[in-house]
Each structure stands twice: as C-alpha cells, then as structure tokens.
Amino acid sequence: MVELPDGVVGNARTSDFGWRILTDLTDIGNRMAGSAGERRGAERIVEAYEEAGLRNAGLDEFEIPGWWRGDSALSVSGPVERRHEGSHDVIALPGTPAGDVTAPLVDVGDGTYEEFEAAAGDLEGAIAMASSRTPETHDRWLHRMEKYVNAAEHGAIGFVFRNHIEGALPPTGEIGYHNRPGPIPAVGISKEVGARLSRLADEADAGAGDPPELTIEVDCRNEPTTSVNAVADVGPDTDEAVLLTAHVDAHDVSDGANDNGAGSALVAEVGRLLKTVEDDLDTRVHLITFGSEEVGLWGAYHAAETIPHEEIACVVNLDGACNSRNLRVGTNGFEEMGAVFESVAAAFAAELSTGDTISPHGDQWAFVQEGIPSVMTSTTSEQSGRGWGHTHADTLDKLDPRDLREVATLVAEATYRFASDDVTIPHRSREEVRDAIDDGYVQELRIGGRWPYEE
Predict the structure, then answer these.
(1) Is 3 exposed, middle or buried (0-12, 13-18, 19+ CB in 10 A)?
(2) How many domains is the chain built from?
(3) By residue range, what is the domain housing residue 316?
C-alpha cells in the first residue's frame, strides 16, 4: 500500500522541479571538486531548498586536497608513430602527479590481479595499460585505483587506463583518494586509441615487430583547497534524522548529468515533496548534497565526522539514479532498509533489484564503515560498467525527465517511511561491519590505503 497521499504522488509524477535543477547543474559545466563550478552547483541546490520552503538551508565548508587539470599527451613510437593530445583521446586521471615518462608498453588486459602477476617480469620500468572492463567471470567490480596501485607496485613508471566502451571517449576517475598525489603519472584514453595500442603490443608479443614505446606527458597541480556540502532540513525538529544524500561534484571533462547531477536534483525534489507532508513526519529528514565525492568521499566523511552517529537514523544515498526508472538498492547488509524499498516497489508495481554486498564505492561508505544503516540507491541500464559515466558523454540528452519523476516518487515514499516511528533500523558495530566485508573488497581497500580499521 502507498503511504504518501495521492496528491503528493500526483505532484511527483507531474513536477518539472527536479528536471529544472538538473538542467541548471549541467549548464554550469565544470563541477570538479574544489572548483568554482562545484560551489555554484551547491549554491543552486541551496536555492532549490529555499524555493521548496526547507529550513536551515546553507553551505557547510571543509578542506580537501585539490587537483587541477592541465594538458596531457600520449605519443607512440616504434612500429607506428602517433601523437594524441586532444581531450577526446587522452586525459589525466585526478590524483596523478605531473611529469613526463617514456617506456615500453605492457598491456595487462583487464588489469586483474592474475594478469598483473603474469606480467610481473615485464612491468619493471614499463608503462602499464589496463582496460576499464571487469571480466564477467570476476566476482566483483575492479576499481581503477586497484589497477593503478598494482601497476606502480609491480614497478611500472606510468599507467594508461583505456575505456572498454566504444565511442564514450577517455574515462577519468580518481586514482589517489586520500594518498595524493599518486606515485606515477596516469592517463585515460578512449577505447579506439587503446585498441591500436593493444594491437601493437599483441603483434610484438607474437614476434611480428618491436614493442611500442609510449611517452606520457601530464601537466596538473595538486594543491589544498575547500569544498562544500549543501544542507537543509524538513520535518520535526528532532535530534535524530534520516539523511537523504547525493553528491553535486562531477569530473571536469563532463556535465555530470547522471553522475551525479540527477542525484542532487532528486534530493531537492524529494525534500520538496516531503515538505508538503511535513506534519506527518515523525523524524527530521536532513538533506545533504556532498562535495568532493569523486576524489575521495570528502564531503561524506566530513558529515560522518561532524554529525553524532547516534543522531543518524539511516542514510539513503542517491548516485547515478536516472539512466532508467528501474531502481537498484545496495543494502550493504542492512536488510531492514532493503525490505522498506521492496515494499515500496511492490506498492507501485515498480522494478527493483537489490544487492547486500558491503561496497566501499559511494558516499554511503563513510557511514557504513561506522555501522550506520546506509544504502546506495541507483538505477540499472543495459550499459556495461559505468557506461557514459566519467566521460565527456555524461550529458543531459542521455536522460529522461519521466525516469527522474519515477525515481523521485519511489525515493520520496521510502524516505517518508524511514521517517516514521513505525520503522526502526538497527545500527551495527564497526567490528560487525569489518567482519562482513567480502575478501575482495578488503583486498581493494588495503591496496588503496583505504582500510579504515585498526589491525
């Protein structure tokens, strides 16, 4: 049974409020963490909060290690002579140090741990290239940071991250997290550029020519700066709150439409819908659009460190939630939260997929690691991996306002229920969470220097 009044559901299904916010965010352009564009995006969310009549709307500032992109290039010599220097061919990965390196190319395929071990004898003093793909036979998604760290630890002096999606241009993404800058220069390249490099490497392995030699040139700056979270409240003035969150920053090569302008717009839209039933809420809903998710979850960690944990009932995090209307909820083992979303989906006859794996990817992780009930809410599509995400092509034209409205309806209903005295989600201890993390993610967190638990 739907618990929201019919008028609120009808409002959600006909509103253009969220789409207007999303359009404005994509029109800003560069919303890289710590940039002026990121702050303008956060200010636009605050304006939306105020337009919706939410209280305590404002910005919460914090410090981050900033990164600014310069020009990058990749040159090939040997059997083929080519130079790539346009951003449609090659871009630096955030967290990389500046510098130029020249060395033979070693293609490590998808960059699995097994492939790195197999190539270990060839990687010393080389430039390693790995695909953004995770093999279907693998039991979990492999993060680019793992591939980067593996390259450096096996002696590579440079790293090339090639997209596995045709036409989607070079992928970007943080490789340093809280260990900036990384040890070796790193760039992303398109699938098409990567295909040529892979072919040349294969021909050399087959004895049909010399291995290609690459030169990577990276110009960038790693300097401290500030970022902001955009916050507001709706509902009764209780100490305890349900947190509804997303991140407003996006990589500077992209408009960040689905990742994650849509999530930010949804937080404001759900806040607006809940304002119309504010007197029915038993618990305050605290809305936060985080800054600096893409470079280390800094905004989420700032919130997790400054809000008393006993005052957080649960966290509903939205990220990449508008490439369809088919909801996906990662429960991180908090089954009670998953059950609420399953009930909501049944009430609306909506598509829903769930997973219970504890994942360190997304802002919810800053809370999950502390035992605070938190879910990652996104949507599913037919695209492989990130699809258009983290590339120039994450633009508004890929999305549909009808999907945004459907997701807003479902998330508003779920948040309405979480803010009811009828729903209680138990916290877990840090030790319980630690012991429940899959070995693969333990491996990833350790190799990336992100393991949050004392030995």
Answers:
(1) middle
(2) 2
(3) 6-64+224-447
